[in-house]
């Protein structure tokens, strides 16, 4: 049963980035327990609703840190954001929306908007935890968000619905750090360079393979011609030997015919 107090709803709940979760705990503590965290179904509670949300890239970072799929995490974040925006649309005036990082940087102002005493916040820690963020995970998460138009659209809708907090939350504080963006762009340029080198190396390899194939074909042709010449030489030698043998045979036969009368005459002389 609702007691009429304003409810705290962290969009997406645990696992979607620690900023809004930690901030909700601080707000609940500052309210003395009158503001209870938890999702809302249907119409907003009579006491109003405070929506706290972490940016979608934080959901992707949390998934990456747990060896999960950032695209799946962004899809779940989108479902939670759509559900929260649907509730907020039913009572725009009674619903206050704060982005976790911006609200953490201006928590006294947030507590004042909620009708709470800023002195009741006894935890000076930064719930956003930027100092502990892994720049590599932030880089990969930013790239995942670039490929997720639905998440970018819903983040824009939540940004538009969020309470303006003045100078307490500079817009650039809610974006990936400048060094992360620079590293991301540098990595993309390096990737393009490596791809160009790979394509050039592949083309050089194909050219070398074609040249090698042509050289091997030419060597094969020369080898076949050498075999043909050797075979012709062997055949010529065989023919020459045959001709020599035939000449010797013919010469032997002619000599026998020419000397036959002389051999007969010699035989008769021996008979006398």
Descriptive account of the structure:
With 272 residues, this protein is mainly α. The protein has 2 domains: 7-176, no CATH class; 177-272. The protein is built from 8 helices and 4 strands; from the N terminus they run E-H-E-E-H-H-E-H-H-H-H-H. The chain has helices at 18-30, 56-65, 70-90, 100-105, 107-113, 135-146, 149-161, 178-271, and strands at residues 7-10, 36-37, 49-53, 95-99. It has a 4-stranded parallel sheet with strand order 2-1-3-4, with helices on both faces. Strand 1, helix 1 and strand 2 form a beta-alpha-beta unit. The longest helix has 94 residues, at 178-271. The N and C termini lie far apart (165 Å). Residues 167-175 have low confidence and may be disordered.
Helices, strands, pairings?
Layout: E1 7-10, H1 18-30, E2 36-37, E3 49-53, H2 56-65, H3 70-90, E4 95-99, H4 100-105, H5 107-113, H6 135-146, H7 149-161, H8 178-271
Parallel strand pairs: 1-2, 1-3, 3-4
Helix pairs in contact: 2-3, 2-6, 3-7, 6-8
Give the neighbour order of strands across the main sheet: 2-1-3-4
Helix vs. strand class: mainly alpha
**Terminal Cα separation, in Å?**
165 Å
Average pLDDT metric: 77
The overall number of domains is 2
Largest sheet: 4 strands, parallel
Following the backbone from N to C, one meets helices and strands in this order, namely EHEEHHEHHHHH
**Envelope shape:** rod-shaped
Q: What is the total tally of β strands?
A: 4
Low-confidence stretches: 167-175
Helical content, roughly? Answer: 55-70%
Beta percentage is 5-15%
Rg, rounded, reads 48 Å
Count of alpha/pi helices: 8
């Amino acid at each position: 049963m609702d007691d009429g107090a304003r409810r705290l709803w962290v969009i997406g709940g645990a696992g979607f980035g620690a900023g809004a979760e930690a901030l909700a705990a601080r707000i609940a503590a500052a309210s003395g327990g009158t503001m209870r965290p938890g999702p809302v179904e249907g119409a907003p509670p009579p006491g109003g609703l405070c929506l706290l949300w972490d940016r979608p890239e934080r959901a992707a970072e949390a998934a990456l840190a747990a060896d999960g799929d950032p695209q799946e995490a962004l899809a779940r974040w989108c479902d939670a954001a759509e559900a929260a925006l649907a509730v907020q649309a039913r009572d725009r005036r009674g619903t206050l929306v704060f982005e976790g990082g911006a609200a953490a940087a201006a928590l006294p102002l947030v507590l004042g908007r909620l009708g709470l005493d800023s002195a009741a916040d006894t935890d000076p820690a930064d719930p956003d935890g930027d100092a502990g963020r892994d720049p590599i995970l932030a880089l990969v998460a930013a790239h995942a968000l670039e490929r997720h138009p639905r998440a970018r659209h819903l983040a824009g809708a939540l940004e538009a619905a969020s309470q303006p907090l003045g100078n307490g939350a500079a817009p650039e504080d809610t974006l990936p750090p400048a060094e992360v963006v620079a590293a991301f762009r540098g990595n993309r340029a390096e990737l393009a360079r490596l791809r160009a080198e790979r394509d050039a190396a592949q083309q050089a390899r194909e050219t070398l393979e074609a040249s090698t194939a042509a050289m091997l074909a030419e060597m094969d042709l020369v080898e076949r011609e050498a075999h043909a010449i050797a075979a012709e030489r062997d055949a010529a030698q065989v023919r020459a030997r045959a001709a020599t043998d035939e000449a010797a045979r013919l010469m032997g036969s002619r000599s026998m015919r020419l000397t036959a009368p002389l051999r007969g005459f010699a035989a008769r002389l021996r008979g006398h």
